[in-house]
Amino acid sequence: MKANIIAVITLFASALLSATPTAGDTRLGGSEHLRTYKGTAISLDSSKLTHWVFMDLWASYEGGGDEQLIAQLPEQFNRQIRRVWVQPELNVTAAQLQDFQQAYPTVKPLVLDHGYRLMREHKVWQSPYHILTDNGVEVFRGTGQALSRYVHKRLGKKHRKPLGGDKAPDFVSTSLSGETIALPQLLHSKPLNLVFIDALCPMPHFPHCEAQIEQLNKQVARDKDNHWLAVINSYYVDEPLTRDFVARFALKLPVIFDRDNSISKAYGVFASPYQVAINRDGTITSRGDLDY
Predict the structure, then answer these.
(1) Which of 77, 101, 176, 197 has the CA that lies 20 to 30 A from 238?
(2) SS3 assignment, position 84
(3) What are the chain's domains?
(4) Closest CA to 239 of 152, 148, 173
(5) How buried is 150 (Cβ within 10 angstroms: 0-12 exposed, 13-18 middle, 19+ buried)?
(6) Which DSSP symbol is given to 175?
(7) d(CA 148, CA 222)
(8) Spatial distance between the Cα atoms of 263 and 170, rounded to a whole number of angstroms
(9) Which pLDDT tens digits describe the chain residue by residue (292 residues)?
(10) Among 158, 152, 161, which Cα is nearest to 263's?
(11) Within a 13 Å sphere around the CA of 122, how many CA atoms are in the beta-carbon half?
């Protein structure tokens, strides 16, 4: 797989370098007759920024995409932008794009960049890469990490995830079985092991997840001294897919489907599987990857 990706990158670079654009001003187009790979017209909102995400689905399958990083961007920023995902037309078919969107349903609208028109127009030579435009005028370009810094500086907001010794963020939610779950009530009787799981398992970027979940079930079954609770984020899946996942792996602990990802964001967790241990007094005693 890695050899295939290297070959794709080599072809990709050669194709772009052979079609270097002429220098121009900072006003960018790309919105005329913009359509998804299925042919659906895409309209851009002049009252919002356009967030162009230049991606490579093969890198995303290997865990090298920016889907997780984008999922962490503040909702306040997401309300200010219209996001368009761009996949170069290189070693990819419409059927493969459709399969990719089934695995990553939040990646939409998705454009297949025929002849690298958008990449040449925006002078993009790598992926993943991000550009923000305001009515065609570029206001930002850079990597995912640079985008994250730009967004938080723009919003004047810094997020600090709670660490060991910090107070655990409170939450009240409903489990998939319909039970109301409140953190204070759980801690009244026992400490809690809060486990964050991604329902995209098995996937190449979550290696060994099946074995880890099997070990988790065994640990839950033999541990009578702690409560166990799973939180499944909604970045790439909906509730029906989450229920299928829970049934397929026969999870032995209560499961919350984090519909708005508020719990994941409050705890600053974007890895899978990941465990946060909380004492009865509400203090986080440890946090880290679940590695049995």
Answers:
(1) 77
(2) strand
(3) 2-155 (3.40.30.10), 172-289 (3.40.30.10)
(4) 173
(5) middle
(6) B
(7) 41
(8) 9
(9) 444 444 444 444 454 444 444 333 333 444 557 999 999 999 988 888 999 999 999 999 988 899 988 988 888 899 889 999 999 998 899 999 999 999 898 999 999 999 999 999 999 999 999 999 988 889 999 999 999 999 988 887 555 688 899 999 999 999 999 999 999 999 999 999 999 998 888 776 566 788 889 999 999 999 999 999 999 988 878 899 999 999 999 999 999 999 988 899 899 887 778 999 999 999 999 998 876 5
(10) 161
(11) 31
Quick check: 197 and 231 in contact, CB under 8 A? yes
CA 47 to chain centre: 25
Both tokens of 244, joined, read 């299928």
Residues belonging to the chain? 292
- What the block records as the tokens of 4 is 């295939």
Tokens matching residue 274? 């990941």
